[in-house]
């Protein structure tokens, strides 16, 4: 399809100010220098999207969806290396390219330029525009549906790495939403023994199928007894963070991934000091980690059929599935297929 064959309007799922989701006809994005237009095959529904829909992140009407795979249908001026028909997934924002985090290969930490391509740029739509520099090629043999997991998997890979997890370690994952579930898969693939703490029964059961050795229902205590070398904290809850730190082995690390807006856990400084405990954060991913996520999906080592819900949803079915995801009734990643899904 050449640029002149493209339609002028497309279907997009617009999240209004009040969180209502409505399918609308909107203009197909116009390409600037360096841009590519991608026909969306699949796009995940993520916790950040749920916060938008719940009105906890308000930016006016917006098309959500950032965990996408698709096919390039047109490229703007000055784009090299990409042609229509290329199968792609979208990676991290590009950053300024000159500050210390950018030079270290972590442009997601750049604060010089607004990072492009984050939440809100809109893949719950037939097409999306993206800076071609953000694209990664989907290798032959990896289907676009599975490739849509790359973004969430890259987040989990970085979090596990920042925790320093090694084969044979005991690891705890608190909160088995989609990032927690992928952290379980990454840790199990690494050869760590994984315990999960998660209130939803369907998610606990799924975590066991994905490779967790035990799944704990938080009751009087949120966290089962350790000691754990690594905690990957995905719940965002203050009580969980505080208890999880106490379950770490000496020299252990807790990685905060669940953002928990306004969460201010209280840690005992003496205990942290005497046990050489590390508490750190992890957000998004580097370009290298995004490439690793694609390679890990292509390797076939992860239980993709357990990580993805079997039934994709169309744009007009998203509104009905959001409350079920918010209540923890769905264990796997739900994918939106704006068309019928591409190959
Ligand atoms: Zn996401
Ligand atoms: Zn920068």
Automatic annotation (TrEMBL):
Its cofactor is Zn(2+). This is 2-desacetyl-2-hydroxyethyl bacteriochlorophyllide A dehydrogenase. The keyword Metal-binding applies. It comes from Petropleomorpha daqingensis. Coiled coil: none annotated. Signal peptide: none annotated. It holds the Pfam family ADH_zinc_N. PANTHER family: L-THREONINE 3-DEHYDROGENASE. Keywords: Metal-binding, Oxidoreductase, Zinc. InterPro entries: ADH-like_C, ADH-like_N, ADH_Zn_CS, ER, GroES-like_sf, NAD(P)-bd_dom_sf, Zn_alcohol_dh. It comes from the Bacteria. Residues 16-336 form the Enoyl reductase (ER) domain. SUPFAM superfamilies: GroES-like, NAD(P)-binding Rossmann-fold domains. Belongs to the zinc-containing alcohol dehydrogenase family. SMART domains: PKS_ER. One of its GO terms (molecular function) is oxidoreductase activity.
């Amino acid at each position: 399809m050449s640029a002149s064959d493209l339609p002028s309007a497309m279907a997009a799922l617009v999240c209004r100010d009040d969180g209502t989701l409505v399918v609308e006809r909107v203009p197909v994005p116009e390409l600037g220098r360096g841009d590519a237009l991608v026909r969306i095959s699949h796009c995940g529904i993520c916790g950040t999207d749920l916060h938008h829909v719940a009105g906890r992140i308000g930016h006016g009407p917006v098309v959500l969806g950032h965990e996408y795979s698709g096919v390039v249908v047109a490229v703007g001026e000055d784009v090299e290396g990409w042609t229509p028909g290329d199968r792609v997934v979208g990676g991290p924002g590009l950053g300024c390219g000159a500050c210390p985090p950018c030079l270290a290969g972590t442009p997601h930490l750049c604060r010089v330029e607004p990072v492009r391509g984050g939440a809100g740029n809109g893949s719950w739509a037939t097409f999306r525009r993206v800076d071609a520099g953000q694209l990664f090629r989907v290798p032959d043999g990896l289907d676009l549906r599975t490739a849509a997991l790359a973004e969430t998997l890259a987040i989990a890979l970085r979090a596990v790495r920042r925790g320093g997890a090694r084969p044979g370690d005991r690891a705890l994952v608190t909160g088995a939403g989609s990032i927690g579930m992928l952290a379980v898969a990454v840790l199990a693939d690494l050869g760590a023994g994984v315990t999960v703490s998660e209130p939803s029964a369907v998610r606990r059961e799924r975590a066991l199928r994905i490779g967790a050795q035990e799944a704990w229902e938080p009751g009087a205590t949120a966290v089962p007894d350790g000691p754990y070398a690594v905690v990957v904290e995905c719940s965002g809850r203050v009580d969980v963070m505080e208890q999880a730190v106490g379950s770490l082995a000496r020299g252990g690390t807790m990685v905060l991934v669940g953002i928990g807006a306004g969460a201010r856990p209280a840690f005992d400084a003496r205990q942290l000091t005497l046990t050489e405990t590390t508490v750190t954060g992890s957000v998004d991913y580097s370009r290298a980690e995004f490439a690793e996520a694609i390679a890990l999906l292509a390797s076939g080592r992860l239980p993709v059929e357990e990580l993805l819900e079997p039934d994709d949803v169309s744009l007009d079915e998203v509104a009905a599935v959001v409350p079920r995801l918010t209540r923890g009734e769905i264990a796997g990643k739900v994918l939106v297929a704006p068309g019928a899904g591409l190959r």
